[in-house]
Amino acid sequence: MKSFIVRALTGIVFVGTLLAAMLYNNISFSILFAIVTGLAVNEFCNIIHEYKKTTFSTLLSVLGGVYLFFIFFAVTNLQVTDVTIISLPYIFLIVYMFVRELYRTEGGALDNFAYFALSQVYAALPFAMLNITATFGGEYNYILPLAIFIFLWSNDSGAYCIGCLFGKHKMFERISPKKTWEGFAGGAAVALIAGYVMSLYFDILNTWQWMVMAALVVAAGTLGDLIESCIKREAKIKDSGNILPGHGGILDRFDSTMLSVPVIVIFLSLIG
Questions:
Q1: Of 38, 47, 81, 143, which sits most exposed with the smallest number of CB within 10 A?
Q2: Residues 6 or more apart from 196 whose CB is under 8 A from it?
Q3: Are 191 and 229 in contact, with CB atoms under 8 Å apart?
Q4: How far apart are CA 166 and CA 147, in angstroms?
Q5: What is the tens place of the pLDDT at every residue in 198-240?
């Protein structure tokens, strides 16, 4: 019971903070997700350092990830047109992270190269791309990034309920023993219903676009969850961190988001 209460309270604070930051304005949105970006990169680096015994700098990786977020923020929210100038510090950082390996006496340069790059692509870039969803149409609008989370939460709730009641056929038992195809179908159905409800109140997309977006979030979110589960299983850890009592780490809470956002950005670019 104590564990349930801690988990519930953490969930309420987590969702409340997320909603407040997105609904208030683009500054609060950017501050929150810049912090999330830094924490996500930090967790990823800690996992890799422990598992692969790498020696690339966690601090510089975190600073790089946060700066990448603000590059996207400047371009989408502040309409900064000279992307090259604002990107120069990030480019210099990448060059430095590669060159510094030339002066190391111990081995592991290839792992350091690869996992630093992965920290930026996997743990930082998806949150930076959230800025694109938040400015679809030219100005800051919380509807689309909020919709991504609504679809993810709907999918999780539906998958949990239907999976517990009817789940028999495992999806990826080797990676995530609790996921079933029945749960996946139930989560998808609830998310599609949420997509239809969104279409009744928000005309930023039409009905079929809302439904397709919901379906894409379900598919990408499920794969994102499985990818993070694969990373944790490979590293032999239960949670990516412990910053969220009862829920684990930032990567544990945003694993589905991290693949959903790039997919939705592609979808939005295709529809206009």
A1: 81
A2: 207, 210, 211
A3: no
A4: 27
A5: 999 998 999 999 999 999 999 999 999 999 988 988 888 888 8
For tokens 């139930």, name the residue. 186
What phi and psi values does residue 76 have, to the nearest 5 degrees? -85, -40
Closest CA to 45 of 33, 35, 54, 34: 54
Kindly give the interhelix angle for 181-201 and 143-166, rounded to the nearest 10 degrees.
150
60-83 burial, b if ≥16 CB within 10 A, otherwise e? bbbbbbbbbbbbbbbbbbeeeeee
* Its pTM surpasses 0.85: yes
Residue type, 97: M
In this structure, which long-range contacts are made by residues 192-196, counting pairs with CB atoms below 8 Å and at least 24 apart in sequence? 192/218, 193/154, 194/150, 194/151, 194/154, 195/151
